């Protein structure tokens, strides 16, 4: 059985219909989908509290068992932390969590590269 935990940064809490946040570190929430054998079997919301370090949101996701992060953009420091803790960062394709997860599951997404990273502070 293949089980994956996939996180997506979002602006508002509407489950799978939540719009994707343009910037990982500044998103107020993450929607975490548990996927078993290609099907979403559970959807959870994780709050992104105010943080003192760019590593904090990544560590919170890692502690929640997230293995894959679908994001539109993020800063270099949190990206480096994802690599250290073993979270794979994929460029989110779509405007909602459902679209991004489905595109990922269908193989219509690519790994995040340097073109998706920013110096921090700006929206993507």
What are the salient characteristics of this protein?
30% strand; 5-stranded mixed beta sheet; two-stranded parallel ribbon; globular; alpha/beta; 124 residues; Nucleotidyltransferase, domain 5; single chain; 7 strands
Describe this structure in words.
The model is unreliable at 120-124 (pLDDT under 50). The protein is α/β, with parallel strands linked by helices and 124 residues long. The strands form 2 sheets. It has a 5-stranded mixed beta sheet, sandwiched between helices. Strands 5-7 form a two-stranded parallel ribbon. The protein has helices at residues 55-63, 76-85, 97-105, and strands at 3-10, 29-36, 39-47, 68-71, 74-75, 88-91, 117-118. The chain has a single domain, classed as Nucleotidyltransferase, domain 5 (2-Layer Sandwich), CATH 3.30.420.130. A hairpin with a 2-residue loop joins strand 2 and strand 3 (39-47).
């Amino acid at each position: 059985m293949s089980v994956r935990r996939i996180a997506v940064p979002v602006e508002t809490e509407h489950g799978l219909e939540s719009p994707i946040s343009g910037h990982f570190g500044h998103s107020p929430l993450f929607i975490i989908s548990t996927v078993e054998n290609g099907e979403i079997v559970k959807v959870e919301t994780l709050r992104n509290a105010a943080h003192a370090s760019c590593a904090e949101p990544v560590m919170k996701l890692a502690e929640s068992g997230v293995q894959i992060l679908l994001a539109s953009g993020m800063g270099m420091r949190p990206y480096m932390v994802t690599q250290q803790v073993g979270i794979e960062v994929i460029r989110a394709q779509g405007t909602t969590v459902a679209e991004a997860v489905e595109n990922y599951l269908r193989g219509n997404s690519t790994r995040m590269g340097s073109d998706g990273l920013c110096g921090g502070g700006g929206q993507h």
